[in-house]
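User: Run a structure prediction on this.
Assistant: Running it now.
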Amino acid sequence: MFNIKKLTGSILFLFATHAGMAQQTSPVDFVNPLIGTESKYELSNGNTYPAIARPWGMNFWTPQTGNMGDGWVYTYTADKIKGFKQTHQPSPWNNDYGQFSIMPITGTPQFDQEKRASWFSHKAEIAKPYYYSVYLADHDVTTELSPSQRAAIFQFTFPKTDSAYVIIDAFDKGSYIKVIPQENKIIGYSTKNSGGVPENFKNYFVITFDRPFSYKAAVKSGAISKDELEIQDNHAGAVVGFSPLKRGEKVTARIASSFISFEQAEINLKEVKSKTFQQVVDEGKAQWNEILGRVQVEDPNIDRLRTFYSSLYRSTLFPRDFSEIDGTGKRIHYSPYNGQVLPGEMFTDTGFWDTFRSLFPLLNLLYPSMNDRMQEGLVNAYKESGYLPEWASPGHRASMIGNNSASIVADALITDRKGYDKDLLWEALKHGANSAYPKHSSTGRFGYEYYNKLGYIPADVKVDQNVARSLEYAYNDWCIYEFGKALGKPEAETAIYATRAMNYKNLFDPSTKLMRGKKADGSFVSDFDPSAWSREYTEGNAWHWSFCVFHDPQGLINLMGGNKSFASMLDTVFVIPSYEGMKSRGMIHEMREMQVMNMGQYAHGNQPIQHMPYLYNYAAEPWKAQYWVRKIMDKLYLPTPDGYCGDEDNGQTSAWYVFSSLGFYPVSPASGEYVIGSPQFDKVTLNLENGKKVNIQAKQQGANQVYVDQLTWNGKPYSHNYIRYKDLLQGAKLDFKMSDAPNRNRGTKKEDAPYSFSNEKIKGK
């Protein structure tokens, strides 16, 4: 997939002109994996952990400061490390699976996570995407690790001691471990998970050390049994020792895992088996530089460079590659849907409710061949479960709402993805739009019977989040229509989805100009408070959800009374005090995050409203989009442990920033267009996969110079408020002339507005 030899000096480039910076700084050097880790249940500043991984890697590794099973596996404010954990956690809310940990200690053998824990300091910690190092003060041990796609290499530097140990914790809820002294090896498996797995789920692991064991013990439910070598228990573990050791002497461990078998784990171990620690580090750094080097940024502000490349790193972690390579070189996967080992691609650990908005469009722009593989993975998910996933971790999970797999599939087709069965995905989209997954309400379409019959889901039929579901289904229907149309499907199949795409109108309340819950008899719910986070909406209120008509802003403008009225409604979002609606329900972290940001009802920490500032472009007031987009970037994205303003959510919040900092954003995925905002950098070069380059310059941009005064495309004046994907793909030179004052004449003509479905001529409409 990756060709290290392609990494040339064009990527190892001077990315900043900041005084004193090294002249060979590479993109990955700007990445800080600790951004977003200063989070907790009550308030998210990202809810991230330092994911030490390869791009889209099957396995991530992270230092573990939380207790076993705690979704907040690493928090910046913690002061003790309890282990180094293999993790597949997409978010603390979905928690983890396929997990176990390893921990070096000195002194007396200790398995208990509190007793083995060690104080550490961020001053003695190095976190890079491809490398992590920390000094464990209580044990006088430095731990270093570097991952490959499915394996990792550890290096423990011990003091002079006769009591050096490594703890292997296979975790509770069912685990197995076996020590094989003659091979300096430990094998085991963990079944611990948070749902979404078949009954035969296991994560098999193998660990080999570079020296023999002087001590060996198995652990059963916390009890250490010296010289016992094999345990199957609710909570299994092992302790191995090495002595004597001189000060500074290193112990190397090589680790791999598989969801298929011990034999496959041994095959996966070949990724690091014959390599030195430094070789794995160097290969990881080169691979990250190849991925991050798709965007070449030049800017004097080092904090912005750190924010950008850290965001791009987060945008290329999920969805993770769940496939493995067998002994014959063929790609296979353990199905998280039916428990079988099957050929081909599989990707997981992403929620489409979040990532359809900008993460997948970013993949289609910068990493299209990767999304080709992901689309094949979706084909396999449908074959193996009967539904496309909406939130997979690793199989179907009961999380969030919507049928946004339609957006993922449609945007891929519109951007010319190839190499997978599109006709089968057409069948999958139709099936998902007209049925509900029998095991929970988050896959398929919960409430589809009401939606298909009435054109909306009523508020009085015990289907919660009914307004939010109805609005998303309308957008999803448009995606299905566009997908079918692009495939050349007959109108007899596609027309119904074009009609249903306008269902958003059924919940528009002319008296408030907002989307409002409606009963089955057609009457709106009473006692309407637009700021209330009520059961009709998902993690938000009417101000957040009323603008979720991604595919047809012009239709929404018409409903709201025209451009000026629409722009006024957008203005109002930023004006209504954030404390409004705070007492409408029990406090959840999304509410608190909106409140503390002090931007009115604008809640960037949650997804439904993230596109909203760009909607000014549809109402002939693009300068307001430019103002607000830059304000959001400058205020809410920082290269610090509290650098996000809510859940990072599998790359979505990061991808929003990546797009926005370039100067455009995909308001309506599957439209083939990006909507213009305010570029944040002096100069950016996009190195597209087809060999073409997109050069973006905004040399006059600054803290106050956020307005687009003029834009030229390949030297010619360009007045539109949108950019087409197909045009960027040919290579382009965009020159933004920025100003500290709005240009109220640019981008105000009707033809300058981006795509809206209402502007298309649809037969019968």
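The domain at 49-293 is CATH 2.70.98.10 (Beta-galactosidase; Chain A, domain 5).
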